[in-house]
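Quiz preparation item.
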């Protein structure tokens, strides 16, 4: 009987060892693939859909790809499956909105990261960026209140993959 118990404990320990090795390998693979910086990953929307961050004050919701906690600070990471020689302004503002959401929940957010296929850009969340994203949100709110919302481009390609396409009366494709 004792041999069976010892064998069962051995098998269970082996299972834990293999599971832990596989898990850590997977975590490493994801971190490498998306170039996630060192620190504790406290949120990810990549493996499975996560709950959106929400700010009542700014009436804003959003889901960054990752949030990394490091030295008491929180760093939102947005992954873009494309190459870029410089960070696109629309991506910077998207990242800034995540920084704002985190900051509004009481977190310290010194910067965010844009991760492209060919490299990363560290985007400081300073007063300049903070004020810009707040200004954009204010403009959006004012336009919605005025009832005069209009399309600001003439590029059908932008509409093809737009998440609002189904509801948008201005769509081009
Ligand atoms: S579908 Fe509408 S909201 Fe989306 S990109 Fe086109 S015009 Fe803009």
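Solution:
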């Amino acid at each position: 009987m004792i041999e069976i118990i010892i064998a069962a404990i051995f098998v269970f320990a082996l299972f834990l060892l293999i599971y832990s090795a596989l898990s850590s390998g997977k975590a490493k693979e994801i971190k490498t693939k998306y170039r996630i910086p060192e620190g504790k990953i406290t949120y990810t929307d990549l493996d499975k859909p996560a709950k959106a961050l929400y700010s009542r004050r700014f009436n804003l919701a959003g889901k960054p790809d990752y949030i990394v906690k490091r030295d008491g600070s929180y760093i939102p990471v947005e992954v873009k499956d494309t190459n870029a020689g410089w960070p696109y302004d629309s991506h910077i503002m998207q990242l800034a909105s995540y920084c704002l959401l985190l900051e509004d929940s009481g977190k310290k957010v010194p910067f965010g990261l844009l991760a492209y296929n060919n490299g990363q850009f560290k985007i400081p969340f300073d007063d300049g960026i903070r004020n810009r994203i707040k200004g954009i949100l204010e403009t959006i709110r004012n336009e919605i209140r005025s009832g005069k919302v209009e399309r600001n481009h003439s590029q059908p390609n932008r509409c093809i993959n737009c998440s609002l396409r189904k509801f948008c009366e201005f769509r081009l494709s």
